[in-house]
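Appendix C: a fully annotated inverse folding record. The material below is reproduced so that readers can follow the format used throughout the book. The structure is listed first as tokens, followed by the designed sequence.
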């Protein structure tokens, strides 16, 4: 009798538990991203948010009627696990490098440049170069494993010491394990400010960038309905001022780079017909 009662209670508990799990899954979409402030991050920065790209994605989905939740993954797993998520908030170059472009649909939301960070005491005259190959003279170079710059530095014959995260990349730079660290400009300064807020003056970065990438929201082609819904939300926030409001939080008023303003303009003009055209390719 007790055994039968226990089975009934357990069965009812499991039914309620998994029904609840299914409901939560239906109400909230699961997205993947990485930890790379100030593009995407786990912790909220006061006065800003969870990273400019993540905030834009969240607001576009919210405007389209969807709540979202994020899983923070290592960069290299974002491509392998795309189908397990509604979308990825990251760099379309990850999918290009993985030869997955025939499997995805995407749209750009911001643009980022990779520069070289260094300690002023190490290079008091700064870093100057005409070609990426010339960077060999600057010693040990660090970068984050899976970075979009991987093909660029490999083609240039640079020997890179790969770090598992952006924070480790800069910790090694500070400790002298690296002479130069590759990072996206905005993310690099944000990470240094977090790690060494009282020592920012000891660092600087190259005026010239080594690579430029768009930051995108990428969907599997199997999720085309959600892509269309997202694009409607993105167009809405591009036209109602919310998109610019988010950009201003990170870049400052009247300091939004021209290439990002061009992406904003494209999203303002996006038409439903363009979605269908994109899906056919």
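Designed amino acids, in order:
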């Amino acid at each position: 009798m007790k055994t039968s009662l226990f089975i009934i209670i357990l069965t009812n508990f499991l039914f309620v538990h998994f029904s609840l799990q299914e409901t939560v899954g239906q109400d909230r979409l699961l997205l993947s991203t990485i930890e790379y402030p100030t593009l995407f991050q786990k912790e909220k920065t006061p006065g800003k948010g969870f990273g400019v790209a993540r905030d834009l994605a969240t607001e576009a989905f919210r405007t389209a009627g969807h709540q979202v939740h994020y899983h923070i993954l290592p960069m290299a797993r974002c491509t392998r696990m795309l189908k397990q998520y509604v979308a990825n908030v990251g760099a379309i170059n990850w999918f290009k490098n993985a030869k997955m472009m025939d499997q995805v649909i995407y749209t750009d939301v911001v643009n980022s440049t990779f520069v070289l960070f260094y300690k002023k005491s190490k290079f008091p005259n700064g870093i100057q170069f005409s070609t990426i190959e010339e960077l060999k003279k600057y010693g040990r170079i660090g970068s984050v494993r899976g970075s979009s710059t991987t093909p660029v530095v490999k083609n240039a014959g640079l020997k890179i010491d790969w770090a598992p995260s952006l924070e480790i990349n800069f910790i090694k730079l500070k400790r002298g394990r690296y002479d130069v660290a590759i990072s996206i400009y905005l993310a690099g300064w944000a990470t240094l400010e977090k790690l060494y807020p009282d020592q920012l003056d000891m660092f600087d970065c190259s005026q010239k960038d080594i690579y430029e990438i768009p930051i995108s929201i990428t969907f599997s082609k199997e999720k085309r309905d959600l892509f269309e819904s997202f694009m409607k939300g993105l167009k809405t926030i591009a036209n109602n001022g919310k998109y610019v409001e988010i950009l201003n939080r990170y870049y400052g008023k009247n300091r939004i780079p021209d290439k990002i303003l061009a992406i904003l303009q494209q999203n303002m003009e996006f038409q439903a017909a363009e979605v269908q055209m994109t899906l056919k390719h």
